[in-house]
């Protein structure tokens, strides 16, 4: 039998069916234990065992230890715990900038497990809620299964701990107990497979035509490749989410929604409320809002509303860029989106100040207002994704070629 | 500070923040009921409340507030 990991393999289909049946009939500790066994098996299979599998488990246990100590002494455990887990994460992921501060013999290449970025954000979310005393009951087995939950382990969605716990204990229904709702979940899994595998695969030759380097591609081909990559990324990620949300719905813990037609976003803020929604909510709650609140109440230059807003947006998107990937290109991805947001909000503030909120809203609702907004947003996003698909050098070559410079 | 006093001052903060003298808020009011209440305005509102009542909201509280009733209860709790 082929043990290569794929969500389309007969092994995963068998795994998902077993999970749905077992978790629907079992109760109490038996259900908790079986779910843990299934999750560990899934993570082992996904990471193909080895060092990164064990380091992932240790990372989860470290996260548990930190939350536990924060619950007992919030202030100091959080102040030490947050930098500690971020440093461990940066080391395990072997960020590109580490080569400037760490000798090569001290760097690691075997701990960079996929899924670690999502684990980090789940752990930090629980740490912050624990420090704020807004976490609710905290239990080792629930927490470990929350972290390793196979429907959110690979690429999110980033579920909140209380949402997971309430569904796990059946206090909140994943989906209504109707035939239609179950049929919808099954159809959603099928749709996800079509998106992630058939449609996304169809776009691959347009994203990177085989046997042709970037230097050999015409500017038209490059432009097509940029748009194709945007759709490819969406189909691949949204398809994966459809599959996982469908499977989770069937066994009673539904992951949160992650996409809502990002292509029709009318501005860049609207885009982030439609794309990777669970990540946007995480960044809004735990990076942007605290920063914006802090700068607004700081007095002095940074407390001016527009300065405070723009600084907070820029910092948030830079952190987001570094979260998305370990190389400098991802920092530029974050910087691009930070600048897009700064430009949009500055323009918006000036327009509202000059013409009034109501009139700006009316203009936006017109056909041309919407059309121009969608066109600009679509292109800005597609071009920023170049940093996602290429290294920094190639990205700038592509921009120069397309602009004819 | 009694509950009536809190609601009176809270309404004043809402009216100043959203620049609307006619705005009426009650315990069940949520962000969905006020058109301009997005995540940016939410933070501006909380900063204005912190300054008006001399209190501090932590990150978890900022995230968990679901309606104005919860906000008023938290203010009462913190300023007592």
Protein described:
The complex is a heterodimer of chains A (405) and B (80). With 405 residues, chain A is mostly helical. Chain A has three domains: 10-168, no CATH class; 179-251; 262-403, no CATH class. Chain A has helices spanning 10-25, 28-47, 50-72, 74-93, 98-101, 116-131, 140-148, 161-168, 179-207, 219-251, 268-272, 277-296, 305-324, 328-355, 357-365, 367-384, 386-389, 392-403. The longest helix of chain A has 33 residues, at 219-251. The radius of gyration of chain A is 22 Å and the shape is globular. With 80 residues, chain B is mainly α. Chain B has one domain (3-79): ACP-like (Non-ribosomal Peptide Synthetase Peptidyl Carrier Protein, Chain A, Orthogonal Bundle), CATH 1.10.1200.10. In chain B, 60% of the residues lie in helices and 0% in strands. Chain B has four helices and no strands. Classes of the chains: A mainly alpha (405), B mainly alpha (80).
Q: Could you say what the CATH architecture of chain B is?
A: Orthogonal Bundle
**Biggest β-sheet of chain A, characterized?**
none
Q: Give the uncertain stretches of chain B in residue-range form.
A: none
Could you give the count of β-strands of chain A? 0
Q: Average pLDDT across residues of chain B?
A: 91
SSE inventory with pairings:
The complex is a heterodimer of chains A (405) and B (80).
Chain A: H1 10-25, H2 28-47, H3 50-72, H4 74-93, H5 98-101, H6 116-131, H7 140-148, H8 161-168, H9 179-207, H10 219-251, H11 268-272, H12 277-296, H13 305-324, H14 328-355, H15 357-365, H16 367-384, H17 386-389, H18 392-403
Helix pairs in contact in A: 1-2, 1-10, 2-7, 3-4, 3-6, 4-6, 9-10, 10-16, 10-18, 12-13, 13-14, 14-15
Chain B: H1 3-17, H2 39-53, H3 59-64, H4 68-79
Helix pairs in contact in B: 1-2
């Amino acid at each position: 039998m082929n043990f290569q990991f794929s969500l389309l393999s007969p092994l995963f289909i068998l795994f998902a069916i077993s999970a749905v049946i077992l978790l629907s009939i079992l109760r109490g500790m038996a259900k908790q234990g079986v779910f843990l066994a299934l999750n560990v098996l899934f993570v082992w299979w996904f990471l193909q065992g080895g060092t990164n599998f064990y380091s992932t488990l240790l990372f989860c246990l470290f996260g548990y230890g930190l939350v536990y100590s924060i619950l007992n002494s919030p202030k100091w455990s959080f102040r030490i715990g947050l930098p500690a887990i971020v440093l461990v994460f940066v080391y395990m992921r072997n960020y590109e900038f580490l080569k400037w501060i760490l000798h090569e013999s001290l760097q690691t290449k075997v701990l960079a497990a996929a899924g670690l970025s999502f684990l980090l954000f789940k752990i930090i979310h629980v740490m912050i809620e624990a420090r704020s005393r807004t976490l609710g009951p905290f239990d080792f087995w629930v927490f470990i299964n929350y972290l390793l939950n196979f429907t959110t382990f690979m690429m999110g969605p980033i579920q909140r701990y209380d949402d997971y716990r309430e569904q796990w204990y059946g206090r909140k229904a994943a989906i209504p107990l109707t035939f239609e709702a179950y049929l919808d979940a099954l159809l959603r899994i099928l749709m996800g497979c079509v998106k992630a595998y058939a449609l996304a695969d169809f776009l691959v030759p347009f994203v990177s035509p085989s046997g042709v380097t970037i230097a050999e591609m015409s500017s038209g081909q490059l432009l097509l490749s940029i748009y194709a990559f945007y759709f490819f990324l969406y189909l691949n990620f949204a398809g994966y989410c459809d599959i996982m949300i469908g499977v989770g719905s069937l066994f009673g813990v539904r992951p949160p929604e992650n996409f809502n037609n990002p292509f029709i976003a009318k501005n860049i803020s609207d885009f982030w409320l439609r794309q990777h929604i669970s990540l946007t909510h995480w960044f809004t709650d735990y990076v942007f809002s605290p920063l914006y609140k802090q700068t607004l109440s700081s007095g002095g230059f940074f407390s001016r509303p527009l300065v405070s807003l723009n600084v907070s947006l820029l910092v948030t998107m830079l952190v987001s860029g570094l979260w998305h990937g370990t190389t400098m290109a991802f920092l530029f991805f974050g910087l691009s989106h930070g600048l897009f947001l700064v430009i949009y909000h500055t323009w918006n503030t000036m327009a509202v100040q000059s013409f009034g909120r109501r009139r700006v809203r009316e203009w936006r609702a017109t056909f041309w207002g919407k059309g121009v907004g969608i066109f600009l947003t679509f292109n800005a996003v597609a071009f920023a994704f170049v940093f996602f698909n290429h290294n920094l050098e190639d990205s700038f070559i592509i921009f120069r070629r397309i602009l004819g410079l | 500070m009694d509950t009536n006093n809190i609601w009176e001052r809270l309404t004043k903060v809402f009216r100043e923040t959203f620049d609307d003298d006619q705005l009426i808020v009650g315990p069940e009011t949520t962000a969905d009921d006020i058109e301009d209440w997005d995540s940016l305005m939410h933070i501006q509102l909380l900063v204005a409340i912190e300054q008006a009542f001399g209190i501090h909201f932590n990150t978890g509280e900022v995230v968990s507030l679901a309606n104005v009733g919860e906000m008023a209860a938290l203010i009462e709790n913190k300023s007592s």
